[in-house]
TrEMBL record:
Keyword tags: 2Fe-2S, Iron, Iron-sulfur, Metal-binding, Oxidoreductase
Pfam families tied to this protein: Rieske, VanA_C
Xref: PROSITE patterns: RIESKE (PS51296)
Organism: Hyphobacterium lacteum
Record carries keyword Magnesium: no
Annotated protein name in UniProt: Rieske 2Fe-2S domain-containing protein
């Protein structure tokens, strides 16, 4: 449950968040990332195990990421660049070089510890746990995707959104903006708009646009064959996998929304596939398409953030804005569940069909 210091926390907690793609850090290396307003040092021991700790040295607050990882007496250790203090992956201080022999005997360095975070690696992703009570054990298992856990990350891209997390998540589930924000001949235009009908169903901490045939005005889907189906899910805190399947072949796009700070969010797009047709497409072309989409979305939400800074009222209409309302309800209900002990209630209790033009 939440502790008293977390009552006014702007971030949703007691959830697993995206940390880094595993390939970003090799054995014996480390990288700094900001997540939920905290500077975090992601590292990998020389034996290959991922870990995460604060990037702020508990001695004099310099960034540990400016140091190096060394092999000490206890194994892999992070060495501070300022005074050479060393910390194990569990945060425990292992060595203070400035201490004389008698000072070393008199000082119990086992009481010195850098803040650490629980991590889990699967699907080529290092997930990080953020709890309302930092010291409590995770109350949820790590995220599950409908692909093998050892699936290889084929492509990874990310983009900064200068808005809060809610605005970023809602933009991903907004079907009505596509012909306008993503107006291009090879995808969709306002001229191709027509009425659509999709059925949604509840999942743990979220909802799913249940498997269906892709829209006929989505040219890119036609590359994958006539028997393709797609399913799009949204699960707290901001996990949005899209599963495109044709028989035993799949193309899975995992879009993840991660808050960096209260007013900055990153959108990560991770691709997995075992479909031969996709392997024939030049990677630079796929990257180009991803960059175009992300830039279009980031421009839109950055502009929206300026408008929202004046605290105007917002309108949510039927049916295209219903997924946004579900997400906001999920967020409120999860926070109430974890802070107050109330039962978690999914606002979507049974399958529901929505209609809109897009």
């Amino acid at each position: 449950m939440a502790n008293d210091t977390a009552q006014n926390d702007v971030f949703l907690r007691d959830l697993w968040y995206f940390g880094i793609v595993g390939d970003e850090v090799k054995p014996g290396q480390m990288v700094q990332k900001e997540r939920l307003g905290e500077l975090i040092l992601f590292g990998r021991t020389h034996e290959g195990e991922a870990f995460a700790m604060t990037d702020i040295c508990p001695h004099r607050a310099i960034l540990l990421s400016g140091g190096e990882m060394v092999k000490g007496e206890t194994g892999t250790e992070v060495q501070c660049p300022y005074h050479g203090w060393r910390f194990r992956p569990d945060g425990q201080c292992a060595f203070i070089p400035s201490l004389t022999a008698d000072q070393t005997e008199a000082m119990d360095i086992s009481k010195i510890k850098a803040k650490t975070y629980r991590v889990h690696e699967s699907y080529g992703i290092v997930w990080i746990w953020f709890g309302y009570d930092h010291d409590a054990e995770p109350c949820l298992p790590p995220p599950t995707l409908d692909i093998p856990r050892d699936s290889k990350v084929r492509m990874y891209e990310e983009c900064d959104f200068h808005c809060d997390m809610d605005a970023a998540v809602i933009s991903l589930m907004d079907p009505a903006h596509i012909p306008y924000i993503h107006n291009q001949s090879w995808w969709r235009t306002p001229k191709t708009m027509h009425e659509k009908q999709k059925t949604f169903g509840p999942i743990d901490r979220g909802f799913s646009m249940l498997p269906h045939k892709p829209s006929s005005n989505s040219f890119i889907y036609k590359l994958f064959g006539k028997d393709i189906t797609t399913e799009i899910q949204l699960e707290l805190p901001g996990l949005r996998p899209e599963y495109m399947k044709a028989g035993d072949k799949h193309v899975t796009t995992v879009t993840i929304v991660t808050p960096v700070s209260a007013n900055k969010t990153i959108i990560s797009i991770i691709l997995y596939w075992n479909h031969a047709a996709v392997s024939l497409v030049p990677k630079w072309l796929i990257r180009r398409a991803i960059h175009v989409f992300m830039k279009q979305d980031s421009t839109a939400v950055d502009s929206q953030a300026i408008g929202l800074s004046y605290d105007p009222p917002q309108m949510f209409i039927h049916d295209s804005d219903i997924p946004a309302k579900w997400y906001l309800a999920l967020r409120r209900n999860w926070e109430k569940h974890r802070k107050e002990g109330a039962d978690f209630v999914n606002p979507l209790k049974e399958n529901k069909t929505l209609r809109w033009r897009s």
